[in-house]
Amino acid sequence: MPESSHSRSWGLTQPSMLNPSANRIARLWRVPVLLALLCTIPAFYIELLEDLPTPLAIAIYAGAAAVLTAALWQVAARCKQPGLYLRANLLDIALIAGLVIAALLPPSTDSNAALTGRLVVAMLALMRMVWTLKAWVTRGGMAYLLLTAVTVLGFCGVGFWALEPRVHSLGDGMWLAFTTAATVGYGDIVPSTPASKIFSVFVVLLGYAVLSLVTAAIAAFWVESSEREMEADILRAMHAELRELRDEVAALRDARARRD
Question: CA-to-CA distance for 106 and 237, rounded, in angstroms?
């Protein structure tokens, strides 16, 4: 049997449903991987802000690479064909390599090539985070998605508060984060510095993805509710037909018994 499930996209896949041990480990690593990748976004800006220590960004990139490597290896080790599972998760392998390279590159303020490389790594990390969140697009996962959405918007609000001089409070930062993520753009507060403009790109990609997943989860809730109601109606109709059939069979038996 293949070691990956039938659902495969973006160079990522889940272990086979026939391998409960690997699936359990994959679920346990889901949140640590998501948090580690979220931390790489401020690491990108630490490299852009001269008043923050570069070793902190290096530690964040290296830590994220270690978490992702541990998660990938532990799941693969529980598969009968680890190589096949690793080949089915090329995005994770590319992201691990990219995080290591991002930790080794010179500061972004000193090299446009380093800045471009870290931007590519950030985009890969965003793809991985969105793919991780897709697993929660179910009726039961709505609470997780709502919590994630609030956390992401709060995180983005803090980012705007730190990077944008026109944002004077956390409330203004969260408002700018929400209008940016929702692509509303009222224009009352707009990013004005290069750092906050680049940060807006991450907010749009990550925030819009999270808000879309929340909307999808709400839609899944109503669809599943409608499906359950339809199933209940079908079951009631089947039970009614079975009762009618039993009554008819009983009547036929009675009629045969009277004839005999």
Answer: 70
C-alpha 19/C-alpha 24 separation (Å) is 9
| Residues ≥6 apart with Cβ < 8 Å to 102 | 40, 43, 61, 117, 118, 121
Instruction: Give 177-182 contacts, CB < 8 A, sequence gap 24+.
Output: 177/153, 177/203, 177/207, 178/153, 178/207, 180/156, 180/204, 180/207, 181/153, 181/156, 181/206, 181/207, 181/208, 181/210, 181/211, 182/207, 182/208, 182/211
The pair phi, psi for residue 9, each rounded to 5°, is -160, 155
pLDDT (0 to 100) of residue 138 = 58
The secondary element (H helix, E strand) that includes residue 8 is strand 4-9
Q: Which two tokens stand for residue 152?
A: 């992401």
Question: What predicted TM-score, i.e. pTM, was given to this entire model?
Answer: 0.64
Residue 235 CA, chain-centre distance (Å), reads 36
The C-alpha atoms of residue 114 and residue 47 are separated, in whole angstroms, by 10
Whole-angstrom CA distances from 227 to 224, 233, 236 are 5, 10, 14
Radius of gyration, alpha carbons of the chain: 26
* C-alpha to C-alpha distance for 99 and 46, rounded to whole angstroms: 15
Contacts of 59 (CB under 8 A, 6+ apart): none
- Are 44 and 58 spatial neighbours (Cβ–Cβ below 8 Å)? no
The pair of three-digit structure tokens given for residue 199, joined into one six-digit string: 């940060």
Q: What is the mean pLDDT of residues 133-154?
A: 71
Comparing 211 with 237, which gets the higher pLDDT? 237
Rounded CA gap, 201 and 161, in Å? 16
